C-alpha cells in the first residue's frame, strides 16, 4: 500500500505563487509515476503534471506549461508542484496521485500518466483559490 498526503494549498492573489507538497509513504516509490490532478467546481478532473520517480521525466497539461513545475525529493520521498503566475482559473482542489510504471511501455507512457483512471493511489486533496 501507498499513502499520499498532499498539502500546501491556500488563498493567493492572481500572479502569485504556491508550492504544493505530496508526502509518500508505504511501498517503495522507486518505480512509480507521481501525478497532480485538479478539479474545479462543476468540472471533471484535469491532468496538471506528472513525474517519473526513476529518472525524473516530467509531463505537463497545456494550461500550466511554463507556469508550473513538478519535482521530487528522493531523500524526503516527497513530490512538489511549484505554481507560479497563478490565475483565477487555476482555482481547484489539487490531488496528488501515484501509480506503478512497471510494465508501462514508452509508447503508452504519456497516455497512461495523464489519465486519472490509471492511478491507483490518491491524496486527500488540497484547496487552491486564486482571487483578489
Structure write-up:
There is one protein chain. This protein is 6% helix and 48% strand. By secondary structure, the protein is mostly beta strands. Strands 2, 4, 5, 6, 9, 10 and 11 form a seven-stranded mixed β-sheet that branches. The chain has a four-stranded antiparallel β-sheet with strand order 1-3-8-7, with no helix packed on it. A hairpin with a 6-residue loop joins strand 4 and strand 5. The longest helix is centred in the last third of the chain and has 8 residues. The termini are far apart.
List keywords for this structure.
single chain, 132 residues, mainly beta, seven-stranded mixed beta sheet, four-stranded antiparallel beta sheet, 1 helix, 48% strand, globular
**Rg calculated over all Cα atoms:** 14 Å
Helix content: under 10%
How many E-type strands?
A: 11
Topology order in helix (H) and strand (E) letters: EEEEEEEEEHEE
Biggest pleated sheet: 7 strands, mixed
Strand content: over 45%
End-to-end CA span: 40 Å
Oligomer: single chain
Average predicted local confidence, pLDDT: 94
Classification by helices and strands: mainly beta
**Unreliable stretches, pLDDT < 50, 5 or more residues?**
none
